[in-house]
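Incident log, entry 3
Record: Tetratricopeptide repeat protein (170 residues)
Problem: checksum mismatch between cached and fresh output.
Input:
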Amino acid sequence: MWVGHKFPGIAVLLVILSGCQSGNLGDLSTYGDDAFTNDDLSGVAYYRDDELLKQAQVQFRAKNYGKAYSIYKKAVELYPKDPVAWIGYAASADMVGRFDNADKGYKVLAGMIPGRPEYLNNVGYSYLLRGNLVAARRYFLKAYDIDPNNETTANNLELLGNSVSFAKRG
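Fresh output:
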């Protein structure tokens, strides 16, 4: 009884603490929540297989170009030799109007896959978005020469033909 009279704060603290303990102290983390809720963050930069690229592709297809651009940007940092990451990065940069970054991506791709229709179509589409129809046509025709049955190339050439009749906007 002397504890309550001489040190009333200690008595109150003991009552409060007796109500708080409901398990093993080893289950608590230093932040007060359960230890199992604290994930190990040492492997944050690790992505299983092509998980990051799949996320970026989903965002691109959903026309969330800003999100796709951010994810592809991370992908090219993690996988600097992966042409899929670079082509997605450049294409999403085009779609958000970051032509400077798109050009960087296409420059890297020129060393990786210079004669591929995917590369040529993307570069041509980039020029189409910028309003440079002559350069766009040049790249689309190169892609057509490589693969005349490529559906994307056919669509891009049709889009180019339709673009000629529209007024140029600044």
